[in-house]
Amino acid sequence: xxxxxxxxxxxxxxxxxxxxxxxxxxxxxxxxxxxxxxxxxxxxxxxxxxxxxxxxxxxxxxxxxxxxxxxxxxxxxxxxxxxxxxxxxxxxxxxxxxxxxxxxxxxxxxxxxxxxxxxxxxxxxxxxxx
Length: 130
What we know:
By secondary structure, the protein is mainly beta. Helix content is 12%, strand content 42%. It folds into 2 domains: 45 residues; 67 residues, no CATH class. The strands form 2 sheets. Strands 5-6-7-8-9 form a 5-stranded antiparallel sheet. It has a 4-stranded antiparallel sheet with strand order 1-2-3-4.
């Protein structure tokens, strides 16, 4: 993983198994400062991995089931996350076209940090809980 793909506040998986850490600094393009629990570490960007989006993570962060059976995860305001056919997720904006409500694709997300970036970009007041 590249340090330039991250932002302060992103969740990542540390170099040890089952180690989840939050990015607290990016000293340069090859190093990332993280806090895992109460431990501060500065790691090589090669020692961290992105956390895949899972249904378990999404269920902790507001699920909305569409009446037709498709799962839409409500992010706040008019933004929803929809699982697409290849197993990753797409952020959609809900809009009314004069007849029905529909969803327009905005951005794709496969990892937790990508969802965090999209939420910040869309100015949705939400913190992802792992």
